[in-house]
Amino acid sequence: MTQDEFDAIKVKLSQFSLRTVDIAEAVLVEGLTQSEAAIKYQASRQSVCGIMKRVASAIEDVPNSWKKVEVWLPRHSRNTYWLWLTRLSDYIGRQRWTQ
């Protein structure tokens, strides 16, 4: 991510501390690994990992109560899963706008 791109999304990071934003910038713009950012900012790798997850959620406008889910599926289940997921996503989208 370029500095200009990061500056453009900073408005979505206003809820975070300056240190958190600095850590995110180090990883996203400077290209530091999370381990390197942890050393630079004297933080644990786990806390930097948590920071990056929260920052990613904020950038993508994901509600804090939601959790990321990844799944490995056999090829024959993939289409059924995507159909179900698409319907669920459409339903959730409608619910968010009608409340």
Brief sketch in words of this structure:
The protein has 99 residues and is an all-alpha fold. Helices cover 65% and strands 0% of the residues. The longest helix has 24 residues, at 75-98.
Overall description:
The structure is a single chain. The protein has 99 residues and is mainly alpha-helical. It folds into two domains: 3-59, Arc Repressor Mutant, subunit A (Orthogonal Bundle); 69-99, no CATH class. Helices cover 65% and strands 0% of the residues. The chain has five helices and no strands. It has helices spanning 3-9, 18-28, 34-40, 45-59, 75-98. Helix 2 (18-28) crosses helix 4. The longest helix has 24 residues, at 75-98. The chain is elongated, with a radius of gyration of 17 Å. The model has no long low-confidence stretch (mean pLDDT 88).
Q: SSE order, as H and E?
A: HHHHH
CATH architecture of the largest domain: Orthogonal Bundle
Count the strands?
Answer: 0
Give the % helix. Answer: 55-70%
Q: Which outline best applies?
A: elongated
Q: DSSP strand (E) fraction?
A: under 5%
Structural class: mainly alpha
Distance between the termini: 35 Å
CATH class of the largest domain: Mainly Alpha
Major beta sheet, specifics? none
Into how many domains do the coordinates divide? 2
What ranges have pLDDT less than 50 throughout 5 or more consecutive residues?
A: none
From the 3D structure, determine the CATH topology of the largest domain: Arc Repressor Mutant, subunit A
Taking Cα atoms only, what radius of gyration do you get, to the nearest Å? 17 Å
Tell me the number of helical segments per DSSP (H or I, 4 or more residues long): 5
Mean pLDDT: 88
